[in-house]
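Blinded run. Sample ID left blank on purpose so nobody reads anything into the name before looking at the predicted structure. Input follows.
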Amino acid sequence: MAALIPRVFSAARSRPQHNSNRPIPRDLGWIIFYEDRNFQGRSYECMSDCADMSSYLSRCHSCRVESGCFMVYDHPNYMGNQYFMRRGEYADYMSMFGWSGGIRSCRMIPMHRGSYRMRIYERENFGGQMYEMMDDCDSIMDRYRMNNCMSCNVMDGHWLMYEQPHYRGRMMYMRPGEYRSFRDMGFSGMRFMSMRRIMDSWY
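Blinded prediction complete.
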């Protein structure tokens, strides 16, 4: 299969129109970034991960998710603050998120169909209390009497972790893999107190 080539459009060119007779598959990721608020200025289309958007746009103040789900970051290489985006329009996301800087990188989140399983640990390197989760948890303190989560192992599915109970505060996207130290990932001093699955119904 040929690689998907990102496209950059000038301000004078309107955004691409999708053929209404051919609906966009829900699991196909498609996001369009714009230089200015309210979808103005030059735009950049992305249908996969992008580690550094500065190659395409010098700034980004609005975006539109045409299909799929994405995680966006305010630093290159998927670092810094993160925010989850699903299909919709974000005319002034910096005010919405409370960010002082714009989007610098993004990941497309593949649709997952099947079971979800994640083990969370009280300490780094899979130490301390361990609990296995297969569904959403709005408070690890209430459910497990666990006041911190510093490492995890995601076996199945894609998850969002939040620094406050009830899915509030800053978040982190977790795909299958081992995460031995959130501190080493740039989350020093940040606790994760609730977790939820990224469901296929969100697409």
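Unblinding after everyone has recorded impressions. The two ends are 23 Å apart (CA to CA).
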